[in-house]
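Hi, here's the filled form for the chain we discussed.

Project: internal
Contact: R.S.
Residues: 292
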Amino acid sequence: MKAQRVKNFILVLSALLIAVFSIWLPGFFMKKNIDAQFTDIKIVPGEYYSGPSESIIKNASKQLTYSQKIQLILGMWESTITETTEEACNLSEFGIKTIVVNRIEDLHSRGLYPITLSEGQNNWYTWNATPYRALDTTFNAYAAVYWDITFTKFDNTEAHRFIVTESGDILYAEANFTDDVAAEFEPKMTNCSYLFYYYGEFTTTLQNTENLRVITHDNVTTTYRINSATDAELKKLDTGNASSFISYFKSFTPDNVFSIYQSSGSDNDTSMSFYASFKKTDNSYQMLILPK
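And the returned structure, exactly as it came back:
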């Protein structure tokens, strides 16, 4: 009888303990987890971070100056280059094609391109254009768009490729001919400042000499100083760096390299230095802009 009472006591006590622990333990572990969440710092998994939206990127990019956009494209400001869509651009394919045709007409008249792609010869060429976007790697919020556009003559005797900003600045030009079209062409290197900050008829030239060009636009004065690159500068020049923003680009050894220093007198004073390099054969011509 006594043994039975002890057994019953143990059973009742066990039941009570189980009931108490069933009520107490969940609350204990819940409190422990809550305390851990408030005190521990954990890294958010990458899949939960999508980065700035396209609308944020577009609005933030509107704040960029002309100089900052060039820096993004040329890699002076660290960026990643990806193909983009026409919706991300300010211009359509036809719009950028029209700018390039007019731009090459202007460069040809200044002795910087061997032929013209004028409207009168427009129906001789087929063309295609691909937009690219340079996105900064620090904030992933600032972007600059540029285009890779090619023109091919109807009989395949000419092919022209241009890397151009939406402002009309030609960063790279390449012409290939089956005949010796470029044999008599001699680039006028002292005019290479015309490759930058192009505003067409809205540009007022205040001064233009062999080594100095001063222009105004929207009350901003921009000065370009142009000199032949020194031996020390030539040693630093690597045209292969252009592969960062020109797809399928192969380096070349230029015939001539000019050093361009650009300074803008405005509320946001900026200055940049570039190399303008040129390479010509009887049936080809290349022109490339790189940062110092």
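Let me know if anything looks off before we file it.
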